[in-house]
Amino acid sequence: MTPTTPLLLLTADPSHPLAHLALRYARAHLQSTAHKDNTQNSTLNVFFYGDAAHIANCLRWQSADQVNLTKEWQNLAEQYELSLPVCVSTALSRGVSDTDNSTRHQLDGNNLARGFALVGLSELAMMMQGSRHLMQF
């Protein structure tokens, strides 16, 4: 099997310019690939790690004059059938949890945004194995 799907590793906090650059890169890549292949299927792997886990927080408020990265990633994921995996350890340590982990760790609630999924680092390892290019933002 030849690795072909690029991997976009997001580590920047949503307030950092690199987090916005990653979204612009992903959008441009997916639009370009969809136009060439005449398909909407994802040709990009994405993984949220470290401070980028804040992007998956559905309680993160954004003023109207700023890009809401959470909603923009959700829209991109829906349009291109893109998975939005988030490292479970870095998410939990930043106060982002889904229902299962909230129950398991006796937390008071969950705030994982729709479309995002908490996963282990093995997911990242498998993506790296299947990728020719790794870009970190």
Topology, please?
Blueprint: E1 7-10, H1 17-37, E2 45-48, H2 69-80, E3 84-87, H3 88-93, H4 99-104, E4 116-119, H5 121-129, E5 134-136
Helix pairs in contact: 1-2
InterPro entries: DsrEFH-like, Sulphur_relay_DsrE/F-like, Sulphur_relay_TusD/DsrE
Protein name: Sulfurtransferase complex subunit TusD
Subcellular location: Cytoplasm
Characterize the structure shown.
Keywords: Cytoplasm, Transferase. With 137 residues, this protein is an alpha/beta fold. It has a single domain (7-136), classed as Hypothetical Protein Ychn, Chain: A (3-Layer(aba) Sandwich), CATH 3.40.1260. The protein has helices at 17-37, 69-80, 88-93, 99-104, 121-129; strands at 7-10, 45-48, 84-87, 116-119, 134-136. A three-stranded parallel sheet has the order 2-1-5, sandwiched between helices. Helix 1 links the parallel strand 1 and strand 2 (45-48). Helix 1 packs parallel to helix 2 (69-80). The mean pLDDT is 92.
Please describe the structure with a list of short key phrases separated by commas or semicolons:
alpha/beta; globular; Hypothetical Protein Ychn, Chain: A; 3-stranded parallel beta sheet; 5 helices; 137 residues; two-stranded parallel ribbon; 39% helix
